[in-house]
Amino acid sequence: MDAAQAARVARDVYGLDGTPNRMETEKDDTFRLTLPDGRRFVLKIANPGESHEELDLQVSVLRHLERHAPDLPVPRVFADLRGRAISGITDANGTRRSVRLMSFLTGTVLDTIRPDAGERREIGRLLARLRLALADFTHPGAGRILAWDVRQLPLLAPLLADVEDAGQRRALETGFARFMDLRPRIDGLRRQVLHNDFSRSNILVDRGMLDRGGPARVSGIIDFGDAVETAIAIDVSTALLNQLPRDAEGREVPDLLAEARQLLAGYLEIAGLTDDELSLIPHLVMGRIVARALLSLWRARMFPDNSRYILRNTGQGWAQLDWFLARGADEMSALLL
């Protein structure tokens, strides 16, 4: 969908006359909508393959957080002219699409800067607060099978054969086998509905206070598209993965988790984890690296025009995976204890 079509959707569905600017996303059409008075919104036209139940899960999570944790910096959902949170349109190709309008959160995308220790601890605190706020949340679609839920890594086994580089395939097969050895323990972990994608691309920070001697502030948690009922430890492991060094290739890294521990320390200030969860988290980080590589390589083959965006985090993962594979299972289990 181009900007002109998006402008018509904003006007016809929400009564808003503004200028849409496309935002880079993996599978939907997302625009920052700027009104003449300066107000900004996010207009999301969903991929036709996304079900209404999936979108309703995301909307329901955000509205639950608005009611029960209004101080968390997450987007607000706005109704259309008919009072609906999810609208339906027919695009220029005659395809039915679902539309949502949300608040635009300001800040610097964490993916574009190097976070400091204070920011990492604050990210951990917010992840824990988000978990606690969603502890009693339920939704019919929360139990969906989601490829990005590391609990579902066994379902990605067929993708191993399609990895063209033999060395990369062997590393992924080894990591996959280690995960399978631990599957009974992973299946027994505590579960609830969680964000499941606390990556640097989904966190915004405001460093304005630093200039005045104050603390860094996380100004936004975005993209609840992977929200699902999964293990608490998996949610934490995804956040830790996204704090691993990106330049580990070609240099010795004594402790790959050094900076991730700062995030974990902030998390544990707010919410606890069991020893079993802490012992499994390093293995789950490795499992997420395997899943990310398999899914990204597959999606890049399926959508070559968007391969740059899809593969943006894949390259760094090979050195990270090698670091974990160089350590035995018992050593990995003790990394965070």
- The low-confidence parts are none
The CATH class of the largest domain is Alpha Beta
What structural class do helix, strand and pairing data support?
Answer: alpha+beta
Radius of gyration: 20 Å
Total tally of structural domains? 2
The CATH superfamily label of the largest domain reads Aminoglycoside phosphotransferase (APH), C-terminal lobe
What would the average pLDDT be, to the nearest integer? Answer: 93
Counting DSSP E segments of at least 2 residues, the number of strands comes to 11
- Measured as a percent range, the helix fraction is 40-55%
Biggest pleated-sheet summary: 6 strands, antiparallel
Q: Per CATH, which architecture of the largest domain?
A: Alpha-Beta Complex
Compact summary:
With 337 residues, the chain is α+β, with helices and mostly antiparallel strands. It has helices at 3-14, 52-68, 117-133, 166-181, 183-187, 232-241, 258-270, 275-302, 307-310, 317-325, 329-333, and strands spanning 19-23, 29-34, 40-45, 77-78, 87-90, 96-103, 108-109, 191-194, 203-206, 217-221, 228-231. Strand 1 and strand 2 (29-34) form a beta hairpin.
Indicate the topology:
Elements (H helix, E strand, L loop, with lengths): L2 H12 L4 E5 L5 E6 L5 E6 L6 H17 L8 E2 L8 E4 L5 E8 L4 E2 L7 H17 L32 H16 L1 H5 L3 E4 L8 E4 L10 E5 L6 E4 H10 L16 H13 L4 H28 L4 H4 L6 H9 L3 H5 L4
Antiparallel strand pairs: 1-2, 2-3, 3-6, 4-6, 5-6, 7-9, 8-11, 9-10
